[in-house]
């Protein structure tokens, strides 16, 4: 077993967990909302920078030279790749697992298929690019004396903050909705599914339903053989129809809880 397994991630979904929320950036509706939120972040960040630099200084710095614009475009393209690589580096350090990179429409993503990552490790991986490039682009905005370079750095910082809209949304979900450290996230990219431990009532209901041996009803199957304490498999369909922070996810997730697997010798 990987020494990080059980601490930072699980290879299979533990018993007693259920899917609580799904967000898919590739979904057209979600993608539109996230893009609008990204535009809003860009405007707010840029407005704050203009206020800090001074609008007269900004206007004087808009007289770009062609080489400066070409460098800016190259940095912007490289940044998209580096952003996902930082995600990947953090995930790899915390899980040791191979990563999946790709694009879904206008969304670039980095995912870790087939594992379930705990809350703390997920937060570190989510916020790593935001933190790293906030420093990388923030320092030039402060230190550059050439106003044209300062304005270009400020544009890159605004692009960076707005480009982190999906990461920031997941961060807010962890901060305000999924605060249990046992929360797991599966992130194959570009969709993320949040899993939470079932409550006592849910577990008791599952165990009670499993005692109805030989009956099949409502998706509950109990198969009890002679001389064997029954093996009950409870399968349920959970529909997540959530609206958080203006983002709507309407997804159906399937959870499995396996209980009472205690075979005895005849």
List the helices and strands and how they pair.
Elements lengths: L8 E2 L6 E8 L3 H26 L1 H6 L5 H30 L4 E5 L2 E12 H25 L3 H17 L1 H12 L7 E4 L3 E7 L2 H10 L6 E2 L2 E4 L7 E14 L2 E13 L7
Helix pairs in contact: 1-5, 3-4, 3-5, 4-5, 4-6
Q: What would you note in describing this structure?
A:
The chain has helices at 28-53, 55-60, 66-95, 119-143, 147-163, 165-176, 200-209; strands at residues 9-10, 17-24, 100-104, 107-118, 184-187, 191-197, 216-217, 220-223, 231-244, 247-259. Helix 4 packs antiparallel against helix 5 (147-163). It is elongated. The protein folds into two domains: 9-194, no CATH class; 198-259, no CATH class. The strands form two sheets. Strands 1, 2, 3, 4, 5 and 6 form a six-stranded antiparallel beta sheet that branches. The longest helix has 30 residues, at 66-95. It contains seven helices and ten strands. By secondary structure, it is an alpha+beta fold.
